[in-house]
Amino acid sequence: MMTTTNKPDRKLIVIEAMDELSMNIPIQWDRYTKTDDGYYVVYGWIARSDGQRDFIMLAMWETDKIDDIFFTTSSAKYSRRILEVLFGSAEDHNDCRKIDDLLSTPTYSILPNHD
Q1: Residue 34, burial from CB neighbour count under 10 angstroms (0-12, 13-18, 19+)
Q2: Residues 6 or more apart whose Cβ sits within 8 Å of residue 58
Q3: pLDDT tens string for the chain (115 positions)?
Q4: Sign of torsion, CA 12 80 110 50?
Q5: I need a labelling partner for 27 at 20 to 30 A (CA). Which of 7, 41, 73, 78 fits?
Q6: DSSP class of residue 78?
């Protein structure tokens, strides 16, 4: 007798999210990690018009016993769009800001203004 589980295939969920994002944003996926219990974190790069790249991290974790997708990015240009693609709304969007805005000194900033 074969036993079935209702657990979703987390790898397929992550790949589906990566594909959906790639159809909407110019992301180059680069690396990933996987925990022993099957949760994934994937890392990628988003090209900018100034020749630099922004990062994106897409993570799947379990919250309240439900598999959930999270992301973070350094892209001021695409962060709102990523939220819309993954969750259908940008209502909870937080702008990505330059570190100089937090520290009120240009000492820590090594990159020029960008997208």
Answers
A1: middle
A2: 14, 17, 18, 21, 41, 42, 43, 44, 69, 70, 71
A3: 344 455 667 888 889 999 999 999 999 999 999 988 888 999 999 999 999 999 999 998 766 666 688 899 999 899 999 999 998 888 888 887 777 777 766 655 555 555 5
A4: positive
A5: 7
A6: T
71 - beta bridge partners? 58
CB atoms within 10 A of CB 15: 14
- Tokens of residue 85, six digits: 């693609």
Q: How many CB atoms lie within 10 A of CB 27?
A: 23
The three-state secondary structure class of 65 is coil
Q: Going from the N-terminus, what domains does the chain have, and what CATH number goes with each?
A: 10-108 (3.30.310)
